[in-house]
Amino acid sequence: MNPARHLVFTLGLSVLIITISVAWLSSIPAATWASWQPATCLQVEGCFCEADQSTESVRQPANAWSSFAYVVVGSWILVGAAVATAGGPYQPLIGAAVGVNAVIIGVGSAFYHASLTFTGQFFDILGMYLLAGLMLVYALQRLLGWSLTRAVGVYVAFSVALAIVQVVWPDTRRYLFALVLLVALGVELIYRRRAAPKIQTLWFHLGLGLFALAFLVWILDTTGVLCAPNSLLQGHALWHLLGAVAVACLHLYYRSETRHD
Questions:
Q1: CB 79 within 8 A of CB 2
Q2: How far apart are CA 65 and CA 111, in angstroms?
Q3: What is the pTM of this model?
Q4: CA Rg, the chain, in Å?
Q5: pLDDT digit string (tens) for 6-42?
Q6: Helices assigned H by DSSP within the chain
Q7: 174-183: per-residue pLDDT in tens?
Q8: Looking at CB atoms within 10 Å, which of 178, 181, 218, 253 has the fewest?
């Protein structure tokens, strides 16, 4: 697919998903969100820096709308998922899974920040679990030589287990995500050392650097160090934007792998 057509299809898919999501979220009365179980952050320290506009359908607009950066990246990945690399393990199904997970992160995060409900929190974290779990299983598949069928089975079972843990022990969500992500990165590095694949590590390092910067901004926003509650410029919104670009780098890193020496 040539770049111009790729761009057109990406914009079209992004606009479709975002329009449907915005229309749905904006149509929900604020009273409806108030009747749902609140997100755990409302019961403790508050939900990030942005002020909670509890009388509006979208309670944190900057944080909600910035989440759609993931939808744009996910749409871009999905449109190009059919383009497989020569001799590489990054097959269209895996690329499509990365794209779908990015879209789930974006829509789930928008839902969470619009509603500040426990249900929204579940879908917000679910997308992050799905992507981190995919990174781990994909690294294990290449390291251990798993078939695609086995990898899919392990991934589905692992994702279900993470979803159950999130419902039963919601306070562990951030620590568990960090643990899965760190293990996934560790297994990926082990795979690279043992298999010595032909792969462009620049994208891996760039994505990791962007995520580290995003996490620093997340901390500054959450702790109130970088905070203007009523501004449209929110640190957590920047976390979304940087995180979305990091996912794009992850896709480019995976797609660059061709064959082993």
A1: no
A2: 10
A3: 0.94
A4: 19
A5: 999 999 999 999 999 999 999 999 999 999 999 988 8
A6: 3-27, 30-35, 61-66, 69-79, 92-115, 118-144, 148-168, 173-195, 201-222, 235-255
A7: 899 999 999 9
A8: 178
Residue 139 contacts by C-beta under 8 Å, 6 or more apart in sequence?
A: 184, 187, 188, 190, 191
Closest Cα partner for 64 from 8, 5, 21, 15? 21
> What DSSP state is assigned to residue 54?
T
Q: Which residue has the tokens 């990054």?
A: 90
87 confidence band (pLDDT: 50, 70, 90): low
The answer to whether the beta carbons of residues 154 and 102 sit under 8 Å apart is no
Residue 149 in 3-state DSSP? helix
Query: What are residue 260's DSSP bridge partners?
Result: 197
d(C-alpha 59, C-alpha 70), whole Å: 20
- For 140, half-sphere exposure in the C-beta direction (CA atoms, 13 angstrom radius) is 17
Encode pLDDT of 199-244 as tens digits: 999 999 999 999 999 999 999 998 889 899 999 999 999 999 999 9
| Cα separation, 129 vs 180, whole angstroms | 8
Q: How confident is the model at residue 83 (pLDDT cuts 50, 70, 90)?
A: low
